[in-house]
Design brief:
heterodimer; A: about 250 residues; alpha/beta; 2-enoyl-CoA Hydratase, Chain A, domain 1; 2 domains; 7-stranded mixed beta sheet; 3-stranded mixed beta sheet; B: about 100 residues; 5 helices; about 0% strand; globular
Chain lengths: ~250, ~100
């Protein structure tokens, strides 16, 4: 088990587990982990997937309102959020599937980070909310960008502006989460990742995830060109593996 | 919002006690209205939000976290007795509990 700032890292059978660790509420600040540490942990080439979760009872209660209003000027706020977004972007770019395993309460910045994951799993008693507008701010950790993509614009507007709480079942109905489970969310997520990646080679997993990332971030022409390059590389590697050489 | 009846109060109390007993791994029979959730049974303040979601569908509760926070700031709800009172107030008044603070 390794630690950095408000986070812990462990690897279980080729699945990396990054946990928010600021118990009991797991309040976060945007730079919840040292990016250089996170890079070191995740660059282990045998990783086939990753889980983002909360240590203890809760996933994350978001940023503490006390911390939010401790910022002294706009520049410091921007710097802090930019650092946080660099971490979120790094996670988004990782070429492995990432599951948010949500236990208990998932609010504000915690929910924003969960939205950045590829799959969301939650416990039956999980609770979700964006309380920011009630405090006179907005979900500024990519929340306004990511939420409409998951639940649609009208639901996103309502959830953000009212700050209303959602139960696990309501979150499932809105497609905010993909699974509501009775069992331990980390165990379920680990098994899910193992099932998804099963006997798939690391190169294939990386190519799938990179191409899906390209689909979101590149033009159609660029993304399809990159996809072609990737499939060509994998085909050649497959032939080489089968015949020991590229046939004439 | 429904008016709270004695039967509703009793049912709510049972749900609350069973929730904390199960979540904190303590014997239901050891709990009483003076049990402090944090100091006596190792719970935390956010558990109340999980508890509330159990009543949300049943009573159509719609309440903002900020409203709960505003009320609790003036009326700390650390014991099971106080948590029952707060839950009943939310069932009865919804988001208007902020006005009762």
């Amino acid at each position: 088990m390794e630690t950095s700032k408000m986070s812990q890292w462990e690897v279980r059978e080729n699945i990396g587990i990054l946990s928010f660790h600021n118990p009991p509420q797991n309040y976060l600040k945007p730079e919840f982990v040292e990016l250089t540490e996170l890079k070191k942990w995740t660059q282990e080439n045998s990783l086939k997937g990753m889980i983002l979760t909360g240590h203890g009872r809760h996933f994350c209660a978001g940023m503490s309102t006390q911390k939010i209003f401790e910022f002294e000027d706009a520049k410091t706020v921007q710097e802090s959020f930019r650092k946080g977004k660099e971490i979120a972007e790094y996670l988004d770019k990782l070429p492995i599937p990432i599951v948010a395993a949500i236990n208990g309460v998932c609010l504000g910045a915690g929910l924003e980070l969960a939205l950045g994951c590829h799959i969301r799993v939650c416990s039956e008693k999980a609770v979700f909310s964006f309380p920011e507008t009630g405090w006179g701010v907005i979900p500024g950790f990519n929340g306004t960008i990511l939420l409409p993509k998951k639940v649609g614009m009208s639901n996103a507007i309502e959830l953000i502006l009212t700050g209303k709480m959602l139960s696990a079942q309501e979150a499932l109905e809105l497609k905010l989460v993909d699974y509501v489970v009775k069992e331990n969310v980390v165990d379920f997520s680990c098994n899910l990742l193992k099932t998804i990646t099963a006997d798939r080679p690391i190169e294939v997993i990386h190519s799938v995830m990179k191409s899906l990332y390209n689909e979101r971030t590149m033009s159609y022409e660029e993304a399809t060109e990159e996809e072609t390059k990737m499939v060509a590389k994998l085909v050649l590697e497959g032939i080489r593996a089968r015949y020991g050489r590229i046939p004439e | 919002m429904p008016a709270v009846t004695p039967a509703m109060k009793e049912e709510t109390k049972e749900i609350i006690y069973n929730f904390y007993s199960e979540e904190c791994n303590v014997d239901r029979n050891t709990l009483n209205e003076n049990t402090n959730v944090i100091e006596d049974i190792g719970g935390d303040s956010l558990m109340f939000l999980e508890l509330l979601s159990l009543f949300k569908k049943k009573y159509g509760i719609n309440v903002e976290i900020k409203s709960i926070g505003k009320y609790v700031l003036k009326h700390p709800s650390a014991t099971l007795g106080k948590i029952l009172d707060l839950t009943l107030l939310i069932i009865e008044h919804g988001d208007k509990i902020a006005d009762l603070a």
